[in-house]
Amino acid sequence: MALTFPAELLATKIARVSIDALANEADRIALITLTAGELAKADNDCGVLYRGVVVDPVKNLQTGQTIAFFSRFDDQSGLRIGQQFIVFLNKLDVRSPCRGADLELAHAGFSAFWVGAPYRIDPGAERVAKIPQSFVAVPERFRGQPGHSSDLEISETIWVDGDDLLAYLKANSK
Predict the structure, then answer these.
(1) Is residue 89 within a helix (H) or strand (E), and if so which, with residue range?
(2) Out of 15, 80, 98, 115, which could bridge 84 as a Cys pair, Cβ 3.0 to 4.6 Å?
(3) What are the chain's domains?
(4) Please, is 17 exposed, middle or buried when counting C-beta atoms within 10 Å of its C-beta (0-12, 13-18, 19+)?
(5) CA neighbours within 13 Å on the CB side: how many for 72?
(6) Each residue of 137-147: pLDDT tens digit?
């Protein structure tokens, strides 16, 4: 008796990855200001098509460049127009039916880190980055502050110095 499996298997749990692995596997990384978002115009699971302007490039992008990318996992990513995020983007598979962009958020949508200044975790920190610690591990050198901003969050969160994180990513992304 032969066992058969569907051509596409869906994972039920997302593995935790290191921020170094996330950065090294990403095709593009940047701090962006999100400028627009709309449901993808396709009869498939492309999710939301976002546009943003690069504020601080880390990998394979330039300051001021406008980028477009998909998030197929909008509930997890928590992207909001007008706010800033550090995004880790991968190229879409060439066979993807999604049109309007050739990039998507990496790691099932858990690779968009909100950046702002709601909390002071360090007297020297001008802005902080919110990292879903259940899905992305940061090096111990980051003196983060655990916490969350909503009871609806499905991940443990850690807040780290956003400028320190950007500098780290620039120095360590391959």
Answers:
(1) strand 84-91
(2) 115
(3) 17-172 (2.40.50)
(4) middle
(5) 17
(6) 888 888 677 66
